[in-house]
Write a structure and sequence with these properties.
Distance between the termini: 31 Å
Structural class: alpha+beta
CATH superfamily: Transposase Inhibitor Protein From Tn5, Chain A, domain 1
Number of helices: 5
Protein name: Putative transposase
CATH topology: Transposase Inhibitor Protein From Tn5, Chain A, domain 1
Shape: globular
Radius of gyration: 19 Å
Low-confidence stretches: none
InterPro entries: RNaseH-like_sf, Tn5p-like
């Protein structure tokens, strides 16, 4: 893929959900820009605690309003999310080799049972704006999921009267806005 993309590859950011939180995948993707939502409460090189304990000790770097889409029995709403971030070194789970240096970004609601995203990225976060940018990459994952869901199911695009020059992507996005 990198060969085919050439110079464009430098601008590509891979965004993955929890299923991609696999040590070897994180290691492989650490050489490129990537954002992975953590599923594993991993051990850290620099602290006796674990990854999911970090939000308790990190300072809040800012907040963000997240538009939560309706899903199942849950109504659409807006959630106020607090963002914190830190450089971390994730220990190799089999205790071999060096720890993997990554950036950790946490985006969570203040409520006890509120949403919480533990994000690991190969990108750097030197400011609250950088951390917010990393969160925005993960937020956009949902739009891509919906696009692929419609594409795979056939959606209604095959019934549209698309004019020449209008792509499926443009048609689909116009229906979402």
């Amino acid at each position: 893929m990198a060969e085919r993309l050439g110079e464009i590859q430098k601008r590509v950011i891979t965004v993955c959900d929890r299923e991609a939180d696999i040590w070897h995948y994180l290691y492989y993707k650490s050489a490129t820009d990537s954002v992975v939502r953590a599923a594993q409460n991993r051990r850290l090189e620099e602290a006796p605690g674990k990854l999911f304990e970090l939000p308790e000790v990190l300072a809040t770097a800012g907040s963000h309003t997240l538009n939560v889409m309706q899903k199942g029995g849950r109504a659409a709403c807006q959630a106020r999310m607090f963002i914190s971030y830190s450089e971390v070194s994730i220990k190799n789970p089999d205790n071999s080799g060096q720890a993997l240096p990554l950036t950790y970004v946490c985006c969570r609601e203040q409520a006890e049972d509120g949403a919480c995203w533990h994000l690991l990225t190969s990108g750097k976060a030197a400011s609250a704006a950088d951390a917010r940018r990393i969160v925005s990459h993960y937020e956009r994952r949902w739009l891509t999921e919906e696009y692929h869901k419609a594409w795979k199911s056939g959606g209604t695009w095959n019934r549209c009267e698309c004019r020449p020059g209008i792509t499926l992507s443009a048609w689909w996005l116009s229906r979402r806005l």
